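JOB MANIFEST
job_type = single_chain_structure
chain_count = 1
residues = 446
[input]
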Amino acid sequence: MVDITTADFFSDPALADDPYPYFDQLRSRCPVHPIAMPRVMAVTGYEEAIEVYRDPEVFSACNSVAGPFPPLEGQPAGDDISDYVEQNREHWFFFEYLITMDGGAHEKERGLLRRIMTPRRLRENAEAMSAIADQCLLEGVRAGACEVIADYSRPFTTLVIADLLGMPDEDRVNLRMSNFNAKVVGALGSSETIETNLLQYCEDRFLEYVVDRRANPRDDVLTQLANATYPDASTPEPDVVVRLASFLFGAGQDTTARLIGSALRIIAEDQELQSKLRADTTLIPAFIEETLRLESPTKSDFRFTKTAVNLGGVDVPPGTTMMVHPGACNRDTRKFENPDEFDLDRERPSCSAACPSSTCCSPHRRSDDHDLTTVESHRGRGSLRRPRPVCRVSSRRLRYRRRRPRHLGRASSGRHREVGPRRDRGLSSSGDQHLHIALKSYDCDT
């Protein structure tokens, strides 16, 4: 049993392999509980997490990327440090990006995003997703085997975002070759360096696109992107548009790739469920939502308290990092009956799909819509639903290896193990598991 008073959530490999006992212990004590790191409180309760997400006046997104790192060296006294947060935003990573903004600045950037991701463009992108899914899947079929995350779901999701933003075909090839041959970023205990930084690559390319299309407009998506304006009709600086495009690559592909990996593992281990989905594809959205609940693609979200607040009966001082664990909140027994079980008929709300406005990539989402992650996942498994190619996923042919989260160092090169018929709780999508499907063993009509 993990000692929650001393365990380091950011570096303990045991928590990476199977965080759920740790989450359960925290929640059993209190859904809002301090951890070993100073000024950090873990949120493991569903209702408490929703309150954090929906109150940006108290819980700032300024530290949403890296949480308590780098730590603050000092802060003013008092119960309201909102001015201090605004004056020191450069302290936090990615302070210039939408994901870390609050209030008016966030709404302004989000308004620009709405003009880039128009309903028409989203419909066109959705039509292209199926073809991209077929392309990525057939490459694995022809190779005889593939690693689902590295060879299928991550290329698929990144190419979907590239299509959404109108990236030229030749650059999509370069993007895929450079991105998916790269090393893991920030691995502890390793001297390896990344071959290509995806974010830097996207920023460099899109800066060229924006400058070129503003000088030489064409009838294409990139020209629309380059000439998008704020709601007040003012024109943003090129680097603002570039950061939005780069943000979509980072935010739109990683979580979806993990979700697809989890979804495939679930249907591989449950043949009855797989047959049910094949027979009635209208159940797929509910399947995706339940997969999001059970295996949250996001291990933790962060917020920073600007004012003193009482959350879940706990007094939280300003300057506290709130570490929200969607994987824990979505298994809160106060909200979900039998939360550790997959239930296709379960009511749909979950923290994974709550999609707060400060983090959601889809600017047009309504309460009854699916966000970009859900749409990508639905289309991403389209090849498993259509007649060609015919691929039935089986746990007997599904192999996995555990890969540590990026902040925990390199994965061991141990042998693959077959997944048994029972669900392994240690395989959390938030732990970046990588699935290996031996497609040559399938009934594949190529």
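[summary]
The first helix runs from residue 13 to 17.
Confidence is low (pLDDT under 50) at residues 182-195, 361-375, 381-390, 400-446.
exit_status = 0
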